[in-house]
């Protein structure tokens, strides 16, 4: 583990991992589980809130819904990056299908709402829709390539 890594240093500062609170093992384990629960709750609630926003409000909600998605997505990527820097890879793990299905439905509802709001909106919204379509295709391509690499190795 490279302690001078900027992401690791930032995470240690934000998480206050040197606090005596973390010295007791059970307390640390319970806090880790509680933090994981809170993290997942924020992920689900932010996706749900963004979905409701774009379906209920339409084009005027696009910047707010996407701001929320980008904020939570960035925190998620930093969390994954921190774990990876400390030698934990989550790319080989699989989520339970029962848990993936509602997430997939929510993501599709969000994407549908974003497309609907983009089509009915002004210049920003239509440009956003084009960018979302291109970005979505790029993400699917990257996912396909990553899956192919993983199955080949």
Q: Globular, elongated, flat, extended or rod-shaped: what is the shape?
A: globular
Main sheet record = none
Overall mean pLDDT: 82
Question: How do the helices and strands follow one another from N- to C-terminus?
Answer: HHHHH
Structural summary, described in words:
By secondary structure, the protein is mostly helical. The chain has one domain (6-152). 78% of the residues lie in helices and 0% in strands. Helix 2 runs parallel beside helix 4 (97-119). The longest helix is centred in the first third of the chain and has 32 residues, at 25-56. It is globular. The mean pLDDT is 82.
Write a brief caption for the model.
This protein has 153 residues and is an all-alpha fold. 78% of the residues lie in helices and 0% in strands.
SSE order and pairing:
Blueprint: H1 6-15, H2 25-56, H3 62-85, H4 97-119, H5 123-152
Helix pairs in contact: 2-3, 2-4, 4-5
């Amino acid at each position: 583990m490279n302690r001078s890594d900027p992401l690791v240093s930032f995470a240690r500062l934000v998480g206050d991992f040197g606090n005596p609170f973390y010295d007791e093992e059970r307390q640390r384990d319970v806090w880790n589980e509680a933090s994981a629960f809170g993290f997942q709750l924020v992920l689900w609630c932010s996706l749900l809130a963004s979905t409701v926003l774009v379906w209920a409000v339409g084009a005027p909600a696009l910047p707010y819904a996407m701001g929320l998605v980008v904020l939570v997505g960035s925190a998620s990527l930093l969390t994954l990056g921190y774990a990876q820097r400390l030698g934990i890879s989550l790319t080989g793990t699989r989520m339970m299908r029962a848990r993936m299905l509602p997430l997939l439905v929510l993501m599709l509802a969000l994407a549908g709402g974003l497309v609907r709001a983009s089509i009915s909106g002004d210049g920003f919204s239509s440009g956003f829709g084009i960018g979302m379509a291109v970005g979505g295709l790029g993400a699917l391509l990257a996912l396909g390539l990553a899956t192919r690499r993983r199955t080949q190795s």
